[in-house]
Design brief:
Helices cover 49% and strands 18% of the residues. The chain has helices spanning 2-38, 46-74, 80-86, 100-110, 117-136; strands at 158-169, 176-185, 191-203, 210-213. A four-stranded antiparallel sheet has the order 1-2-3-4. Strand 2 (176-185) and strand 3 (191-203) form a beta hairpin. The longest helix has 37 residues, at 2-38. The radius of gyration is 45 Å and the shape is flat. The N and C termini lie far apart (137 Å).
């Protein structure tokens, strides 16, 4: 009787223990799986780094564009040769003396006036005389310190005329600079107009005279 009674009871107890053990194991397994999901993997920290790095190229492009704009603005200083080379306001090449007033107006517009009118005209006329002596060889004895190659240069230009000239402050230093556009035939005989040149001057404050400078 006792053995028979203990048999079913032992089975029931064993069944309950097995069920409880199963629940514990299931709970442990669920907890472990949740822990595994919430724990960052070795690549997880890289995710925000990738997002951050993707945001940089836009900033870099904007910075590069700003730098490019600054460079473009910095290089926009007036240059008579560059302005005349554009040719928007110039007559066709080889138009002859009748087109020289148009060239003069274009040169006037290329560099804004920054000298008193009388001084600008005086310097411009002097610059024309110096340049004619430079390319033709005539009148060089007026500026012996400027033309130090007298007697050694034999090849000069012919059919020379100055198409336009302006006097402005010299941005490279004290004094004034004359910008010229001229025409002439070189030693080989080729005639061209629209040539450009500059002559620089220093003024003697005591005498008020302008002296050409190399």
């Amino acid at each position: 009787m006792t053995a028979t009674t203990r048999g079913p009871a032992a089975l029931i107890i064993a069944t309950v223990l097995l069920a409880a053990t199963g629940m514990v194991l299931v709970g442990i397994g669920t907890s472990s799986s949740r822990t595994a999901v919430s724990t960052p993997g070795p690549e997880s920290p890289a995710t925000p780094v990738v997002q951050t790095s993707r945001s940089h190229p836009g900033v870099a492009k904007r910075s590069a564009a700003a730098g490019s704009s600054t460079s473009a603005i910095a290089s926009a200083a007036p240059s008579p040769s560059a302005s005349l080379a554009g040719g928007e306001n110039l007559p066709p090449s080889m138009s002859g003396p009748k087109a020289d007033p148009v060239v003069q107006r274009a040169l006037d517009d290329a560099v804004p006036a920054d000298l008193p009118v009388g001084v600008a005209h005086e310097v411009a006329e002097l610059g024309v005389e110096v340049w004619l002596a430079e390319v033709t060889g005539r009148g060089r004895d007026r500026w012996p310190d400027y033309f130090t190659d007298r007697g050694t240069r034999t090849a000069f230009y012919t059919r020379v005329r100055v198409q336009a000239a302006i006097g402005r402050k010299d941005p490279a230093g004290p004094g004034a600079v004359v910008h010229l556009v001229w025409a002439g035939a070189g030693p080989a005989g080729t005639f061209l107009d629209g040539r450009t040149a500059t002559v620089r001057f220093i003024r003697d404050e005591r005498s008020g005279t302008w002296t050409p400078q190399r």
